[in-house]
Amino acid sequence: MSFSFRGNDRVREAIHAVFLYHAIEAGLTMGIVNAGQLAIYDEIPETLRDAVEDAVLNRREDATERLLAVAEAFSGTGTVRAEEDTAWRTAPVAERLSHALVQGISKFIVEDTEEARQGAERAIDVIEGPLMAGMNVVGDLFGAGRMFLPQVVKSARVMKQAVAHLVPFIEAEKAAGGAAPRSKGVIVMATVKGDVHDIGKNIVAVVLRCNNYEVRDLGVMTPAETILDTARELDADLIGLSGLITPSLDEMVHVASEMERRGFDIPLLIGGATTSKAHTAVKVAPAYSGPTVYVTDASRAVGVASSLLSDEARDAFVEEVEADYRTVRERREGSARRPLLGYRQASANAPPMDWSAYAPPAPREPGVTRLADYPVAELVDYIDWTPFFHTWGLAGRFPGVLSDERVGGEATRLYDDAREMLDRLVAEGWLSAHGVMGLWPANAIDGDIAVWTDESRGDRLATLHHLRQQSDTGKPSLSLADYVGPPGVPDFVGGFVVAVGPEIDAALARFEDDDYGAIMLKALADRLVEAFAEHLHERVRREFWGFAPDERLGPDELFRERYRGIRPAPGYPACPDHSEKATLFTLLEATAATGAYLTETFAMWPASTVAGWYFSHPDARYFGVGRIGEDQLRAYCERKGVDPAEARRWLGNLLER
């Protein structure tokens, strides 16, 4: 039926919205829709909606004729952009507020909020009445998959503006003995000690606030005592922990243990890129007797919080989670894991490398090269936009995501906003970019890589310590040291650190009351630093090291790594020891060169910092070290000269149990 109205997008969108509305009511649980062009059911003009429902639901014998007649009045090129369509301005103020929140329109929000305040008995009634009613619509649409994270964050921006206008009046009412706004619950959130990443946490906080939860965000690198003291002070209902790097996993266990020691019983929420249901079930939950729940992403946060704070649903929800986690632990304990080779056996199983038939390329520009105040404009063409959309919860590869049936409309609007901010960022110099890279003589010795002061290879400048695969897969057991020649072979290795936005806090001040703008800026900084790493690696291959001077690859080929060599990062699967970043930073004097520095758990600040090694061998590839045995840990500690307890802190998640 919809296809019959091709060319009349407003009617087609109304048909789709009406069909979905009634299908969901009837039990539909899955569908494929173009959410970017999906009309909101309650905002379809009544005459059009009635005519469409008559036809879709077959309520009248003349439904077809009536719809054809009505359709002529709504011919056109689809839904008018919400901010341009002013027909809604004639509605009552409560409806205007709801419309502005759902559509993310801030143009009239202050005057509409003031009109609503003048008609209310108390300013607080505007928040607890039409504003929260509008945010409830936002929450319902988001929960139903009919709004996406960028839209929700825009709604939050509008809500903040409305509340900011009302705050002075509410404070005056409170001083006169009035009531304060009521929330569904108080949630303390923080990125744990040693970690600096917070984009995901910030998005979760916005979504929760949109659903009338009071969120106290303690920021990044937050010690356990600060989190728990704040929770006590605020009489918090929930605590949420976030982290990106693997040491954060142990810090979360520490926070859980401290909650147990201090007698907490409120729920603990766990989230972040390196977290998982398995880690939460196996490591975090056993350390705390209160409810502990892994939250996969922002779209689940409200449902989890609502269930945990509901008198009716809490017990059943907690019981279900605990039963699920018991199953995870039992499955993990009973699973048949691939056996490990002994470390000596794994070392003997290294891949055969014919160094007699290969001449390692010598760098054109050996030593350390600083690239201070690098032109940000030169990085723009190297941005891989696909992860940017994933940050905002919009799945799909760029540029295809812009025309995706489900998310294409919102992805396009998000991309337009991003490009607009990116243009301003570059033109006005909001963020600076700084890099440093080095290329040194090197040889693989006893499982590690010796970095020499010069090509005489007599004095060792540093040692890069590496781990080897031990899983018995029937294939060679890999180590990054395999890709560097043994003594007698004049090989080389490289390293780099790039950072964008040491002044990020000053740049974020532009968006003090604008979560959408702040998250957008951080997401763009992340994309720019990854672009810097890609761009610099290309220059290394073509210029500084020069082993691929004729390489000419397009952006997609670069993002798919269709080039020779790799740039593995300390803390990631091929070299999982985060503490090796200290050696890299020392070799490059990276803090002086870039402004970036390491936290006590070897996270890098600013968060938009990337560091890694360069390997040039044609066979070099990425891999995961995987599980290791106690024998390798002992050998690694001996070579590195560290206490086993210290090594366990960084590698404990890899050890065979």
Can you give a write-up of this model?
With 657 residues, the protein is an alpha/beta fold. It contains 23 helices and 13 strands. Strand 1, helix 8 and strand 2 form a beta-alpha-beta unit.
Tell me briefly what this model is.
The chain has 657 residues and is α/β, with parallel strands linked by helices. Helices cover 44% and strands 11% of the residues.
Question: Which characteristics define this entry?
Answer:
13 strands, alpha/beta, 657 residues, six-stranded antiparallel β-sheet, five-stranded parallel β-sheet
Number of helices: 23
Question: How many angstroms separate the termini?
Answer: 60 Å
| Main β-sheet description | 6 strands, antiparallel
Strand fraction band? 5-15%
Mean pLDDT: 90
Principal-axis shape equals globular
How helical, in percent, are the residues? 40-55%
Structural class: alpha/beta
Secondary structure topology:
Elements: H1 9-25, H2 46-56, H3 63-73, H4 93-103, H5 109-118, H6 123-143, H7 149-175, E1 186-191, H8 199-210, E2 214-217, H9 224-234, E3 238-242, H10 247-261, E4 268-271, H11 277-284, E5 292-294, H12 298-308, H13 314-334, H14 343-348, E6 367-374, H15 386-391, H16 408-428, E7 433-445, E8 448-452, E9 460-464, E10 491-500, H17 504-508, H18 515-544, H19 555-559, H20 581-588, H21 590-594, E11 597-598, E12 604-605, E13 609-614, H22 630-640, H23 644-651
